[in-house]
């Protein structure tokens, strides 16, 4: 792959560096893999950065940076850097394992919600034997997916295989076998009216911020459920909590949050009808992520197209 170049890593903490090095020693042994905070790193030798929540201003110090690799599928944690070098391309971490893990999580969450798992867990904590919490079956349930990109399509197919009816909504019209599809703002009300379980898998853009609010929730069937695996900024939290407390929504599983980690006092921690997870729905193994990162670095060196590049004009 050419001359030795430096890759700095900020993902998983300093304890994860040994594993990252083992993976890159196998995949790209000529790379000098260093910790993000290593004081001995020469900034001018850094060509690549694999990062999660990079410290503001640090990326700009690497004058010869050729590629920024997000450690996760989203890039908002990188774009938050006010000094981000805009000329450096950013790659999203979308491995085959990422899509598999997301599909598994969404299917698990949908089944958990229709079988009223949040309510059953709350009853267990309270020492209540509520044998009437039997929920409903997948075949009688329509799951609506907001966002039919790579992850959304994979989740849709998994839900179909489980037995759900599936609808999908995206910015542009898409044809997906076995899935009823909707597109654009004009189709959103019809899509929401059909979605007994709403899955948010939208990208983080100015158009999608706050899209799950009191108005959109009101368009869902009474007693609908919510799965948020998109971005925390998509959800107006007070509107969600109000809908749950008034039983407009039955329950929710929330994996992504506006501020992470959640404050200890946040209402999501102890709400009886919310299952909260710490942004783990689609985190792929380090082996899988290192493989994609190594192939992207190889593409940069060989002047070939890099997969899954962030496109600023689209917002994802």
Automatic annotation (TrEMBL):
One cellular component term from this protein's GO annotations in UniProt: cytosol
Keywords: Oxidoreductase
Signal peptide: none
Molecular functions (GO terms): glyoxylate reductase (NADPH) activity; hydroxypyruvate reductase [NAD(P)H] activity; NAD binding
Top-rank taxon: Bacteria
Residues of the D-isomer specific 2-hydroxyacid dehydrogenase NAD-binding domain: 108-281
InterPro entries: D-isomer_2-hydroxyacid_DH (IPR050223), D-isomer_DH_NAD-bd (IPR006140), NAD(P)-bd_dom_sf (IPR036291)
Pfam families: 2-Hacid_dh_C (PF02826)
Protein name (Swiss-Prot/TrEMBL): Dehydrogenase
Species annotation: Paraburkholderia xenovorans (strain LB400)
């Amino acid at each position: 792959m050419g001359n030795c170049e430096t890759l700095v890593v900020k993902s998983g903490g300093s304890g994860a560096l040994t594993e990252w090095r083992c993976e890159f020693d196998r995949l790209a042994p000529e790379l000098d893999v260093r910790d993000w905070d290593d004081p001995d790193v020469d900034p001018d030798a850094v060509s690549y950065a694999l990062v999660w929540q990079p410290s503001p201003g640090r990326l700009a110090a690497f004058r010869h940076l050729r590629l920024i690799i997000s450690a996760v599928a989203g890039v908002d944690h990188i774009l938050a850097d006010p000094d981000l070098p805009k000329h450096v391309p950013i790659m999203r971490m979308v491995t085959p394992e990422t899509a598999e893990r997301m599909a598994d999580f969404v299917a698990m969450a949908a089944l958990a919600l229709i079988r009223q798992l949040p309510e059953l867990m709350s009853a267990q904590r309270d020492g209540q034997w509520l044998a009437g919490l039997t929920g409903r079956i997948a075949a009688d349930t329509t799951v609506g997916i907001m966002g039919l990109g790579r992850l959304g399509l994979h989740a849709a197919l998994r839900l179909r295989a489980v037995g759900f009816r599936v609808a999908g909504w995206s910015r542009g019209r898409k044809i997906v076998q076995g899935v009823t599809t909707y597109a654009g703002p004009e189709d959103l009300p019809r899509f929401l009216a059909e979605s007994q379980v709403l899955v948010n898998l939208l990208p983080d853009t100015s158009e999608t911020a706050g899209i799950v609010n009191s108005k959109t929730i009101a368009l869902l069937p009474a007693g609908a459920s919510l799965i948020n695996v998109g971005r925390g900024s998509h959800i107006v939290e007070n509107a969600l909590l109000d809908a749950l407390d008034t039983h407009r929504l039955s329950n929710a599983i929330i994996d992504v949050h506006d501020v992470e980690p959640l404050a200890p006092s946040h209402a999501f921690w102890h709400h009886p009808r919310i299952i909260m997870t710490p942004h783990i729905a689609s985190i792929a193994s380090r082996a899988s992520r290192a493989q994609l990162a190594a192939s992207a670095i190889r593409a940069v060196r060989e002047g070939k197209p890099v997969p899954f590049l962030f496109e600023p004009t689209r917002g994802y």
